[in-house]
Amino acid sequence: MTSNIAAKSKPIPPGIYCPVISLYKPTPRQEIDYDASYKFFSHLIRSGIDGLVLAGTTAEAVLLSAEERKELVTVTRKAAVDSGRPHFPVVAGISGQSTVESIRLAEDALSAGADFGLLLPPSYWAKAVTKEAILGFYHDVADATALPIVIYSFPAMCNGIDLNSDTLSELAQHPNIVGVKLTCGNAGKVTRLTQEYTHGQFGVFAGSSDWLLPCLAGNGGGCVTGIANVFPKCVARLYALWNEDKIKEAKELQGLVAQAEKACKEGIAPTKYATGHFAGPSAGVTELKAFWPRKPYLPCDPQKAVWVENVMQHLVKLEQSLPDVV
C-alpha cells in the first residue's frame, strides 16, 4: 500500500511546533499587543522548538480579525529574522467557513511571510459537510494558493466533523497538501498514514505532546502542542531524547509532560494563565492581563489558577535548567 507519489516540493519539517497564544493590551477593546507578541515569539524561537503556529485554536483565531492574523505573521517573521533564524518555519492558521475566505487568508499569510497554512474543514452546517464537500474544499484552497496546506483535524472544534484516514489519504495525494495535525488524538490514523506515505510525501503530527512518543513510534513527524507556550524547552527535550535513542529517559519525561499538559486541556484560560505565570517573566512579558482570553471569555479563576500551578510545577526546574539554542 506504500504510495509512489512524489515528495512535496516544500514538505513541512518534522519537530515540535508551538501554537502560540495571542497577547492583548489591558484596554477595553483588548487590541493585540504586538510588542509583547514579538518578545514572546523571540522567547519561543530561542527555546529550541522547531516552528510556530499562528492563528490556531490556542491563539483564539475565531476572535481575531483578518488584519490581526496577517500582522501577527509579519511580527513572527521579524522575530525569527532578528533571532538569526530567517528560515524558521512559520505556520499560519487560514481556517475560514467558506472556500473563498480560506483562500483570502492563505494569500494574506503568504504575503506576510508564512511558510505553511493550517486549515480546518468547514463545519458550520455539519450535515452539509459530506466527503465530497471536504475533498472539494481542500483541493480548491490548495489549487488557489502557493502556500502549502497542512490539514487540521479537530472534531471537538468542528461540530464533530472527523477526517478519517481514508479521506486524509486522498487529500495527501494533492501536490500542495503537505501534512496533517491530528488533534483528534487518533494514533491509528498515524500508523495508517505513515504506512502509506513518507514524511516528505505527507507529514503526520500529533495535536498535543501527551502522545508525542506514541506518534513518533508510529513514524509520525512530531507534534503541535499548546504546552509549548509554557514549557517549550521541556517538549523540545522530549523530542530530542527520542531522536537520540534515549528511550527510557524519553518515556519518563513523556509521563511528566503528559501530567502537566492536562491543565492545557481544561481550556484557553488555564493555558494562558500557565503561560503568563511560568513563561511570561522569561519572555519579558509581565503584564498579567496580556494573558487573559479575549472577551467575552473570562480569565482563569483563582481556584483553577492554583490547580494549574500545582499540576505544572514539576516541570519548572527542568525548564530552567535547559539552555537557549540561539
Subunit arrangement of the protein:
single chain
Number of domains: 1
Low-confidence stretches: none
Number of helices: 12
Which of globular, elongated, flat, extended, rod-shaped describes the shape?
globular
Classify the secondary structure makeup into a structural class. Answer: alpha/beta
Strand order of the largest sheet: 1-2-3-4-5-6-7-8
Q: Any guess at the CATH architecture?
A: Alpha-Beta Barrel
Rg over CA atoms, rounded to whole Å, is: 18 Å
Distance linking N and C termini: 42 Å
What's the helical proportion of residues? 40-55%
* CATH topology descriptor: TIM Barrel
Kindly provide the name of the CATH class: Alpha Beta
Largest sheet: 8 strands, parallel, barrel
Q: Helix and strand succession? A: EHEHEHEHEHEHEHEHHHHH
**Count of distinct strands:** 8
